[in-house]
Amino acid sequence: MSLTKSLIAEIEHESAGTRKILERIPQDKFDWKPHPKSNSLKALASHVAGLSSWPGVIAKTDHLDLASLKGAEINSTEDLVKEFDNNIKQALDTLRNTKDEELSGKWSLRKGDHVIAELPKAVAMRSIALSHLYHHRAQLSVYLRLLDVPVPGMYGPSADEK
User: Fold this and answer.
1) 69-83 burial, b for 16+ CB within 10 Å, e for fewer?
2) Which domain holds residue 11?
């Protein structure tokens, strides 16, 4: 299986679980934080929805500048899911039109002139896009647990689904 086909299969599989988490985000708790140093539920969920576009960005660009990144306006749980769905569709469409060789170049994550990371595209795809998204998805599951919202299973049933 080619690298791009493998990435597509993984994203298709994992996006189902991410979508289940986002569908359960309680809109009336958007401003809730588990700790003063933590992001709000809305900020974290919006970040997850936005990260879903990054595989396509990494595939077709040589960098992402966080200083110019503008997130979607999120006012409801429905907005979160819609943003996620649109981003996943675009990322998958982009990857379906990407050759493995296109993932061999360098890619960097920046904030203005400051380079945060510079990696081979294939490594950036794994760590900056996918693992990063899974990490924040897991944080969302903890937020849901702390809010007593039933947590959906990612790799089999959760304690709430048994």
Assistant:
1) eeebebeebebbbeb
2) 3-146
pLDDT tens profile 80-90: 999 999 999 99
Render pLDDT for 36-74 as a digit per residue (tens, 0 to 9): 999 999 999 999 999 999 999 999 999 999 999 888 899
- Specify the pairing of strand 63-65 against strand 114-120: unpaired
Task: Indicate whether 161 belongs to any domain.
Answer: no
154: in domain: no
**Token code pair at residue 31:** 């401003």
CATH of the domain at 95: 1.20.120.450
- 92-to-26, 32, 58, 96, 151 alpha-carbon distances in Å: 28, 32, 12, 6, 26
Residue 92 domain-assigned? yes
- One DSSP character per residue, 33-62 reads -SSTTSPPHHHHHHHHHHHTTHHHHHHH-S
